[in-house]
TrEMBL record:
Pfam families: GMC_oxred_C, GMC_oxred_N. Belongs to the GMC oxidoreductase family. FAD binds at V232. Keywords: FAD, Flavoprotein. Residues 273-287 form the Glucose-methanol-choline oxidoreductase N-terminal domain. It comes from Billgrantia gudaonensis. GO terms for molecular function: flavin adenine dinucleotide binding; oxidoreductase activity, acting on CH-OH group of donors. It comes from the Bacteria. This is Choline dehydrogenase. Its cofactor is FAD.
Length: 552
């Protein structure tokens, strides 16, 4: 097997959010021979599909790469787990299932940065709608006329209402309105300001990942080959007719056997994510000159931006003890409560086992200095000391808030030539005065909401961080003590104009200075979207598929 090179037209590295859609679209033409490679196994682990199972998928070697950040100065020296999906469906198999597109201004800004009008909001909206299957557009759905202008139906990517509500969250939403945040029924029309429950990527109470959406039913196509449990070691290159390097394929470890080769007649497409794609580029000789030299990797193309420009959403969790409220803390801290939760899910596919990690959402401004919503809330009817630890033994809610548009920038850099060694992930959270100010101000917004009359019936007590923290400096340092990633890394293979020294790919996502190679994942975002990043990544893949098929 190691001596035989298999031939394809397109090779896609990574069967995650972007890769599954690309495999579907590129293989729709039976003339295209498509290879999809995934380092993880099949998505047949039952906890992938039960929504609350994300608790058992994150930091689990069966489904997660189990990356960790380097100790971060902005987090006062702490290191965080940094989950990335390692299974069919990638991060869509372990994430929060929350359907958020971001704001129109995000995409208009990309168009300005790249000079490519295809990235403007009005030109991205059809790509979102093409694969969407929105529940409110079902027969008997409750869509208004405007909803049909912004949402699609009949596509592969299912969007549904959550199958539960909590009175304590309803009242928190009312308190948010009293604090000046308007109600909304749709976060995805380009201006996401407002408060409401998240919509989720689920179907009838089960997680709807991209493997189900885009591979199920098409994996049997004769022109689509799937190699799972197969890790790409490096890209292969030849000198093109114009003298520039051309990516011709990959070398892979399959079934424990290294050196397996596959060749691409047209393109190799990296969809390994904002961590995996820059790591593979660097291992293959595409990256900052000094990094390649440090590891004695022969340079193929010196691109200073590979692994730079890392951006992420850092959430700051406020926990409020409440009285007289039903929360998951009280329901799940007894055998009887757990039995009721399990029975409800078995019988109705509803209740806490159908929960996304967060239920209530709000977008608003951290201060009047912002003309647009710059913070996002993920509100949950539960609390715990840290992810993966048991719930508190008292009733409580958690209101997590994140800065949507951080100015801090981090890096992803290989530590060795071994593709199995995790790279150094340095987010540099809270490394700018702007980010520290937003952190402090956003905690004050949380307090303002909790103080409103609608929430007073619960006699809320700020358990974490605690009212003793009041000044900007105290709150900013506190954010470093308790802030955690919300798992949205982007930007490490950013797109941009030719005169942008950190641009890794051009506006059509082709790697600069190398023929036959593209990156199609969240790493190409020049700036992070103002919301959760999974569905924008699908939009990017949809747009890229059209360019690839058109040879553009």
């Amino acid at each position: 097997m190691a001596d035989k090179t298999q031939e394809f037209d397109y090779i896609i590295v990574g069967a995650g959010t972007a890769g599954c859609l690309l495999a579907n679209r590129l293989s729709a033409d039976p003339a295209n021979r498509v290879l999809l490679i995934e380092a993880g196994g099949r998505d047949n682990y039952h906890w992938i599909h039960i929504p609350v199972g994300y608790l058992y998928c994150i930091d689990n070697p069966r489904t997660d790469w189990r990356f960790r950040t380097e100790p971060d100065v902005g987090l006062n020296g702490r290191s965080l787990i940094y989950p990335r999906g390692k299974t069919l469906g990638g991060c869509s198999s372990i994430n929060g299932m929350l359907y958020i597109r971001g704001q129109a201004r995000d995409y208009d800004h990309w168009a300005e940065l790249t000079g490519e009008p295809a990235w403007r909001w009005e030109n991205c909206l059809p790509d979102f709608m093409k694969h969407e299957d929105h529940q409110r557009l079902d027969d008997g759905g409750d869509a208004d006329a405007a909803h049909r202008d912004y949402h699609g139906h009949g596509g592969e990517w299912r969007v549904e209402k959550q199958r539960l509500k909590w009175q304590v969250l309803d009242d928190f939403a009312t308190a948010a309105v009293e604090a000046g945040i308007p109600r909304t029924r749709d976060f995805n029309r380009g201006d996401n300001e407002g408060v409401d429950y998240f919509e989720v990527n689920q179907r009838s109470g089960f997680r709807w990942n991209t493997s189900k959406a885009f591979l199920r039913g098409v994996e049997a196509r004769g022109n689509l080959t799937l190699w799972h449990s197969s890790q790409v070691e490096t890209l292969t290159f030849e000198t093109g007719s114009g003298g520039e390097p051309r990516c011709t394929g990959v070398k892979v470890t399959r079934a424990g056997q290294g050196g397996v080769s596959a060749r691409a007649a047209r393109e190799v497409i990296l969809s390994a994510g904002a961590i995996g794609s820059p790591q593979l580029l660097q291992l293959s000789g595409i990256g900052p000159a000094e990094l390649l030299a440090e590891h004695d990797i022969p340079p193929v193309a010196e691109l200073a931006g590979v692994g730079e420009n890392l951006q992420d959403h850092l959430q700051i969790r406020s926990v409020y003890k409440v009285k007289g409220a039903k929360t998951l803390n009280t329901l799940a801290n007894s055998l009887v409560g757990k039995a009721k939760i399990g029975l409800e899910y078995v019988l109705k596919r509803s209740g806490p086992m159908s929960m996304a990690p967060s239920q209530l959402c709000a977008f608003t401004r951290s201060s009047e200095a912002f003309e647009h919503p710059n913070i996002e809330y993920h509100v949950q009817p539960l609390s715990l000391p840290a992810f993966g630890q048991p719930l508190h033994d008292f009733p409580a809610i958690t209101a997590s808030v994140c800065n949507l548009n951080p100015t801090s920038r981090g890096t992803v850099r290989i530590k060795s030539r071994d593709p199995r060694q995790a790279p150094a992930i340095v987010p540099n959270y809270l490394s700018t005065p702007e980010d520290r100010q937003v952190a402090a101000d956003s905690l004050r917004v949380t307090r303002r909401i909790a103080e409103q009359p609608a929430f007073a019936r619960y006699q809320p007590e700020e358990f974490k961080p605690g009212l003793e923290y009041q000044t900007d400096d105290e709150l900013a340092r506190l954010a470093g003590d308790i802030g955690t990633t919300i798992f949205h890394p982007v930007g490490t293979t950013k797109m941009g104009r030719d005169d942008d020294p950190l641009a890794v790919v051009d506006p059509h996502l082709r790697v600069r200075g190398v023929a036959g190679l593209r990156v199609v994942d969240a790493g190409i975002m020049p700036t992070i979207t103002s919301g959760n990043t999974n569905s924008p990544t699908l939009m990017i893949a949809e747009k890229a598929a059209g360019w690839i098929l058109a040879g553009e």
